[in-house]
Structure formats: structure tokens, C-alpha cells
Amino acid sequence: MIKTSGNSIIFDNHVPNLLDNGIVLIVDDVPNNLKVLSDTLADAGFEVAIATSGESALQQLEHTSVSLILLDVMMPGMNGFETCQRIKANPRTQNIPIIFITALSESVNKVTGFELGGVDYITKPFQQSEVLARVRTHLQIYQLSQSLEARNLELQQVNEQLEQRVGERTQELCTSVEALKQTQQLLRLVFDTVPQWVAWKNLNSVYLGCNEGFAKIIGLNSPDEIVGKTDYDLSITEEEADLYRSWDRRVMESGKAELHIIEQSLLADGQQIWLDTNKMPLRDVNGNLFGILLVTEDITKRQQAQEELKQQKQNLEQALVELQRAQMQLVQSEKMSALGNLVAGVAHEINNPIGFLGGNIQPALDHIKDMFGLIDLYQQEYSSPSGIIQDEIKAIDLDYIREDLPKLVGSMKEGVKRIRDISTSLRTFSRADSDRPVACNIHDGIDSTIMILKHRLKASETRPEIQVIKEYAQLPLIECFAGQLNQVFMNILANAIDAFEESNIGRSFAEIKDNPNYITIITQISDDKQKLIINIKDNANGMNEEVKQKIFDHLYTTKGVGKGTGLGLAIARQIVEETHGGKLNFNSILGQGTEFIIEMKL
Description:
Oligomer: single chain
Structural class: alpha/beta
């Protein structure tokens, strides 16, 4: 908080408690859910309001100030999404964060919830620690945002006040200069009254007079003692005197004032202060220059205040960056959690029928072999079958069946193996991370990511297959969060494929075939045996300098609307550098391609 008192500005650096006086509104049509949530939040010290429908929630918001809303999605009448839409349409309530409540068995379009303005989801049955953690996090984000807006307004007000004060002081000085033309008595009275240190010199930089403040600060008993002295006669260093004389010459030669010369000065008592000096030419009634007026102000307190404001601004900017990062992590975590559940479920459902097929193919081959053996035995024992049997053997082409049927079953066996590989890749990619690093095979993660992207790599009507060249070194198991690293591989490889789609525009199938698209993946151990290095390189168009400067920025994307979020590479760098203590860098040459380099400690 910033307060004013007379000519002073007072800074109240009190930081409010981010979780006090916040009311949490719970909207649910199930009484038991209301009781569980309200008891959990009340026990944690939150003030709770409840509503049993969307309509009653909207009514409460008309007269109750709410900091966060827990909103059930599936309600009779007005459902959660409609209620959210009504809340966000009201300017008075549109900034209140909304966390949707849903059951695991419900088919809820989470993307719709986020698009409507929801900030998070809580699933039923409730986990008390998760509910409290999410409520606290979003209350903190909401209240930090409010605090940031208030601090920015305060900073603007302080700047305006400072500018106003400088303008007022300058006007006072100009008025004082005009008063000098009246009488010597009025001159002394005026200059001894002003709070600034004032002195005036002739064209040779010899002092003609000063006020009481100036005399006192340079150690003189009376302003009269300065008459006839130069800067070299004062208690300052020769270097400082040379500097002041050079300023005087500039003003005299140009005939123009030099305003707000900011400098640090060391007083005789050892105190370090900040000075703001204005040097202005003095002219007679005919406009002829006859001297210099200098006005100096001690701005130490103002400078300290500006430094404090600068530090506060940096702190607020850092808080905003951390808030954006937390939001980014929450959104990506929710997306990957949903994707992981989906992929794991699909892989599980595939395994059962594939296990059935895989387990029965070999017995089927054995039965086919036995049947052909029986047919051979029958032909040996009855070498002259009837005409009807001979005609049927000819009609079905028994020799072709004997040759092709084992091949057909063998193809089925290969297909089952292919599906098993896909299922294994899905499970590898979607593996859930624990709370600590686990020893993993990095190559398995890369291969599973390539398998998932296989549909984008294979040939299409417009281009040949994108080749993936793998040059794997012998690597030990790496302690890491495998699921998160798989996200990094997915983002980099998907961006490479997107780059190929852009670079192939305007090129024919034959042109692309002559100069094919390829991705090279190289893994190696550094020469000092301390780091794992992963290089992922494409031969697309590369990036220009503008894109290079922003490629890791939060929410920056070069893709069209609806095709990119701008989170992928920002999250990838965060996973590699902050979570794993590594480095994610890149090299890109326009027209030749881009290479990403991942470095991690072994």
C-alpha cells in the first residue's frame, strides 16, 4: 500500500495473507457430496457457502463475495457447464476461478470445461488432500493475480506523483530565478527558503552567491563566504571539480539548461547521498548570458524508494512467471493423465483378444499339419479315388491350399505380433511416473514414441514415408521420470513432422522422393562419461532468427489457430532442465533443418 503525507510518499510493504477472508462456494445437488466437501474445507479453515443447483448458485453470487467455486458438472436443470457459462458472462463474477467436480464414470468433455473458463477438475470419490491442495493452489493464483493488479496500479500512481512533484519543484525554481531580478534582499530570502541547494556562478565558473542550504552542505558558515571561490576551492576532489566545470562549459557554450544530472556524492561525514542537479543559463534583460544557476536536490530517499519499487516489480514479475508455470504444469499434467488413462485402457483391452489369438495360432498350425498328413495318408492308401473326389480336389486346388494355408496363418501370426508391439509401446509411453526417478531404458521410451507417431510417419498420397534413422549407443539404465521424458520426445518429434508438412508445401511426390524427409536420432555418452546426449535432427526448413528467440517462450507457437498451444517446447525445457537437471538446446539453419540436443547427467 502507498500513502501520501504532505510531500512524503510512504510505502507499506505488508504482504496480505493469500488465503484469508476467502469464501468457497460449493455447488452440488447431492447432499452427501455437499457435506463431505464443506466439512473438509471447514476443518481446513475455509469459509464455505453451498448451493444445491445452478440457479441457487447464481442467486448467491448476486449478494455474496466468493473467491472460488467448486461446481458439479452433472446436475438436473441447469448443469455445471451452463452455470459456468452464466458466471463467466457476468462482469462482476467472471474472474472467479471455477473447479469442476465430476465422477470417474461420467463421460465429461474436459476440453469444453476449460474452454468455458474452468481452471481445474476434481474427481469423485473425493480425496481430501487433493481437494485441499487444488483449492489452496487456485485461491493463491486468484489472489496473487488480484494483488499483482493492485500493485501495478500503485506503481502507476507513484510514478504520477513523482512526475507531479518534479514538475512542481521545477516550476518553483523557475519562479525563484525570476525573483532574483528584483532585489538582493528578496534574492537571499527566496533562496534561503527553498529546500534545494542553490548557487550561481559567472561565466568563469566563479561563485557569485548561494543559499543557506548550499553553504551548509559544503561546510561554510555563511553564504557570503562562497563569493569569489571556484569548485577547486571547495572540499571536493579535483576530479569532481573538473567534472563540475565541464558541465558549466557545456551550458555556457550551448546556452541551454542541463536538467536532472543524477550523481552520487560522498559527504564530509562519510554519508553517501544521491543528488539531482539542474544547471540553467542566466540571462539579462537583453537576453545576454551572464552566468549559471545551479539547483541541487537531495533525492536519496526518492532513489531508495525507486529501488524498492523496482525490486517489488521484479518480485511481482517473478511471481507471475511462477503462476504461469504452475498453470502450465497443471494443464499439461491433466492432459497427460487423461491420455495415459485412455492409452492404458486401450492397451489393456487389446491384450485380451490378442492373447487369445496368439495362443491359438500355433495349435491351429499343428491341426492343419495333422489334416494334411491325414490327406497324404489317405492318398497313399486309396491311390485311385472316385471321380467325384478327384473333381473336388481339382476344384479347390488342394496343392495351392497346402502351400498357401500355412503362409496365411503365418501372416496372421505376424499381425498379432505387430499388435502386441503396438500395445507394448502404448504401455511404455503412458507409464505413470512415481515421486522419484526410476532406472529406465531411454531407447524404449524413444521407440514407443516413434511407434505412436507411426501413422504420421508412413507414406501418404502427397509424400513418401518419413524415414527415421536411429544410431543408438550402448547405454546404461538412466535414473529419470520416464513418462515425462516421453512427453519431451513426443513434442520434439511431433514438431519435426509438423515442420516437414510445412516444408513439403508446393513440392511434388517425386521431388520429395528425390530429397526425402528424414529424422535422425543419435544417443551417446559424453567423452567424460558424465552425461547422456540425445540428438534429434530433421532436414525440414529450419527456423528464422525471430522464431529462435521465442521458441521456448510460454504460449508461443508458429502453428495456425487450433493446431498448437505454445506449451510443448516450454514444458519440454522445464522437464529436462528443472525436473532432471539437464540441458535442452537447439541448432537451426534456415533452409537446412533443426537439431535438438538433450543433455542429462548419468
